[in-house]
Amino acid sequence: MAQNNRLWIVLGTDYPDNLEKRMAARSAHFAYWDNQKDADGKAIMQMGGPVTDEPGDRMIGSMFLLRLPTLAQAQALLAEDPYVTQGVFETYEIRPWKWLVGTPENV
Amino acid sequence: MLFALTCIDKPDSEALRLANRDAHLAYWGETGKVKLGGPFTDDAAEHMEGSFLVIDVADRAEAEHLQAEDPYQTAGLFSRVDIRAWKWLLGN
Question: Which of A1, A2, B60, B73 is the most exposed place for a label (fewest CB within 10 A)?
Fold first, then answer.
């Protein structure tokens, strides 16, 4: 796998009862990741969406996938995510991952 | 609904993982529930250290039931399993 195709799973867990803060930061979070492109102009975020409660109507976290060469770059970009800077996530973890099943053509 | 399964191996368990890998892949293939999946690795991408899957099931009970029968789980590979409901908004 080429170095520039390394994938990183991000799991973010919100502070309890933090939906108001999440909603306030949400459009900034989308805009932030929209603007993160690699040298070829391709999006760094490959997929993503909210973690929810079980009825599925209350957002309580995030799971998304980044394509970047190194963990240090993933950590640096995460540190500036509005969900981090605006106190939405209580914790988050970044884990290197290989997409084996269900891989889209463009990853 | 979709559930994201984050499964972390016990330390130094790659031999156990490899011994059960074919059974694990066959098991999930037969369920027909996997939307995406693959292994977590170490930072250098040289060793597998866990599994991450998104499965499409009715509810948490079905997700837990399927995970409990994963050959990796029955072999005692994982130190931690985390199951979260998830909505696929981007890149689907």
Answer: A2
d(CA A16, CA B6): 21
Q: What is the pLDDT of residues B15-53, one digit of tens each?
A: 999 999 999 999 999 999 999 999 999 999 999 999 999
Q: Are B64 and B72 in contact (CB under 8 A)?
A: no
Chain A, residues 1-60, CB within 8 A of chain B, namely: 1, 6, 9, 11, 45-54, 56
Q: Which of A1, A54, A102 sits opposite B45 (nearest CB)?
A: A1
Contacts of residue B31, defined as CB under 8 A and 6 or more positions apart, other chains included, come to B55, B66
User: Quick check: B91 and A65 CB within 8 A?
Assistant: yes
ipTM score of the complex? 0.93
Q: How does DSSP assign A22-47, residue by residue?
A: HHHHHHHHHHHHHT-B-TTS-BSEEE
Beta carbon pairs, A and B, within 8 Å: 84
User: Which of A24-28, A83-87, A103-107, B77-81 bottoms out in mean pLDDT, i.e. has the lowest?
Assistant: A103-107
